[in-house]
Amino acid sequence: MYKEFYSLKENPFKLSPSTQYFFLSPQVKGILRLLNYGLEQNVGFMMVTGEVGVGKTSVLRYFMSRLNSNVERAYLFNPTFSHSADLLQFLLLDLQVIKEPIEQTGEASKASLLHRLHQFLLEKYHEGKKVLFIVDDAQASPDFILEELRLLSNFETNEDKLLQILLVGQPELKEKVKGKSLRQLGQRIAIQVEMKPLTKEETAAYINYRLIKAGAQGSLFNPKAIKLIHKKSKGLPRIINLIAERALIAGYLNSKVAIGKKEVKLALKELGL
Questions:
Q1: How many CB atoms lie within 10 A of CB 45?
Q2: 26, 104, 200, 247 — which has fewest CB within 10 A?
Q3: Going by C-beta distance under 8 Å and a sequence separation of 6 or more, which residues neighbour residue 55?
Q4: In this prediction, what percent of the chain has a pLDDT beyond 70?
C-alpha cells in the first residue's frame, strides 16, 4: 500500500490520539503551561473548550502522560450520569479508593461516598500529592452533575483546594457555565482557555511533523497542496488527517512521489468535502 510506496513505517495520519504524533504548536505549549500552573497553584477549576476535531483530547492525553507520580488522577470521558452518587462512585473507583461499587441507596450512600472521598483527599494532601479529576466532553453533563462537581470543589484546607477539576468540552460548555443555574460554577473557573484551529503555517508544520515521525525523509506535500488542505479543513487536525491520508492514497494510486493540489482535490471529492 501507500506506506511502502512513500517509505513510511506506519500511517502518519491515523485519527486515534497518539502522544508519539502529538504536535506541540505554540498555542498548545501555552495551554499546557496554563494547565500546569493551575495544577501547581491548586486553583480548583480549569476549563478547556474548542470545536469538534480541534485536538482537545490529544492535548488532554499528552498533558496526562506528562503528569508525575505526585498527581493522582481520574479521567471521565462520558459524564452522562443519572444520579450524582454515580459520579462519586466513578471517581472513587477510578482513584482506586474502592475496588467495586458500594451497594447502597439514598442519602446514606452519598454521604458515605463523600466521606470516603474527603478522607482520601486529606490523606493525599498530607502526603504532598495532588488529586486531579478530568471530565472530557463536559458539555454533555447534565447541570446537576456540573453542580455536583462545584460542590466537590468545596473540599479544601485553610490554604488549598484538595481536588483539582479540569473540564474539557465543546464551545457549548462555555455558554453552559455562563447560564443562570450554573453561575456559581462559572465564577469558580480560575483558568479558561479556548483552543483555536491551526493556522496555515501550523498546518504545514503539523503535516510535515507527522510525516517525519512516520519515517518520511522530507515533505511529501507541496505548498499548494497544504494551502488547499488548510482551507478545506479550516485548520482542524481531525479533518487535516482525513484529507492528508486520502491524498496519500490518491498519490499512491497515481504513482505520484509528491502530493500536489490534484491529489488533494481527489481526496476532497472522495470525502465529500
A1: 23
A2: 26
A3: 28, 195, 236, 237, 238
A4: 98
